[in-house]
Amino acid sequence: MAEPTWLYTVFAGLFGLLLGSFLNVCIYRFPRDLSVVMPRSFCPECEKPIAAYDNIPVLSYLLLGRKCRNCAAVIPWRYPTVELLTGAAFFFAVYKYGVTPIALKLAIFAAMQIALIFTDLEARILPDEFTLGGTLVGILLAVFVPMPPSILSLFYSNSWNPRVLSVAEAVLGACFTSTMIWGFAKFWGHIRKREMLGFGDVKMVAMIGAFFGLQGTMLALVFGCILGIVIGGGYMLIARKKASEYELPLGTFLALASLVLALAGAPVLTWYSNLG
Fold first, then answer.
1. Vertex 20: Cα angle to 14 and 24 (nearest 5)
2. Which of 207, 37, 178, 177 is closest to 115 using CA atoms?
3. Which class for 271: exposed (0-12), middle (13-18), buried (19 or more C-beta within 10 A)?
4. d(C-alpha 138, C-alpha 101), whole Å
5. Where are the domains of the chain?
6. The whole model's pTM is what?
7. What is the DSSP letter of 160?
8. Longest alpha-carbon distance in the chain
9. Are 99 and 4 in contact (CB under 8 A)?
10. CB-based contacts of 265: which residues, under 8 Å, 6+ apart?
11. What percent of the chain has pLDDT over 90?
12. Count of alpha carbons within 13 Å of 149, Cβ hemisphere only?
């Protein structure tokens, strides 16, 4: 793996900031079934178009004093947060792995998880554009970034095409984990007489499986559930929310767990070798 240069890492960070600005558009519009192409960026309060000089990632937020130039409505903190997180993720990916396929995979995965954190937190929606679309992207990237072997390795020979095996591991990770969590939610929901899991969460698990593989997704599920219990449970306790009435944003915790594992260098994501 080639050593990254500061030029590449800085460029990656700046590109991440720009992509973060676009992710903010997706976070707002996807749950509302609005096009992310047209119309151009506008203020959600007064619906006036935002000028290009007022749409510079992070900088415009600070220069405008966190308020819309036209109506003085407060700009939500989510906008600079998403931009900074995405920029930092892209910077880190190239800093750690250089200009390589694994850096690209990490950056794409991080961007989708950041978007899903906020769509689920704000609207309790996990858009298909990120979940189903992300599943396809993860499987495609498995052609270029080998997936770690799982129990599937017991059934094939090392002489088989490694690209095909890598794709098979991604498909297994997507299908097995999503089916497993869907079946468990159905079973537990039948006992509790209530819906325990939205289908959006199932599709999100499939997406994580396509990127992480079987073992990594199981780890992300465990970590995500722990975060949900600690953070979500703590919030419900402090806010005095009833578990039967409050819907925890499970997707937010799964995305956060997956993002932390990916950036921390989880072996299941960073397992890298030549496909030959």
1. 155
2. 207
3. middle
4. 12
5. 1-99, 127-276
6. 0.87
7. S
8. 65
9. yes
10. 96
11. 47
12. 10
Average confidence (pLDDT) over 181-203: 73
Distance separating alpha carbons of residues 187 and 172, to the nearest angstrom:
22
CA distances to 64, 89, 137, 153 from 160, rounded to whole Å, are 58, 35, 23, 11
Average pLDDT over residues 122-128: 92
Query: Which residues lie closer than 8 Å to 201 by C-beta, 6 or more apart?
Result: 126, 181, 250, 251, 254
Q: At how many degrees (to 10) do helices 128-141 and 101-123 cross?
A: 160
Q: What are phi and psi of 158, to 5 degrees?
A: -65, -15
Q: Tell me what pLDDT residue 272 has.
A: 40
Computed on alpha carbons and rounded to an integer, the radius of gyration of the chain in Å comes to 20
Residue 180's pLDDT is: 87
Rounded to whole angstroms, how far apart are CA atoms 84 and 190? 42
Class of residue 58 by CB neighbours under 10 A (exposed 0-12, middle 13-18, buried 19+)? middle
For residue 20 the two structure tokens come to: 């973060």
Would you say how long the chain is, in residues? 276
Burial group, residue 209, by CB count within 10 angstroms (0-12, 13-18, 19+): buried
Q: Is the pLDDT of residue 167 over 80?
A: yes
Residue bearing tokens 């509302």: 32
Distance, in Å, from the CA atom of 31 to the CA atom of 8, rounded to the nearest integer, reads 34
Decide if pLDDT at 110 tops 80: yes
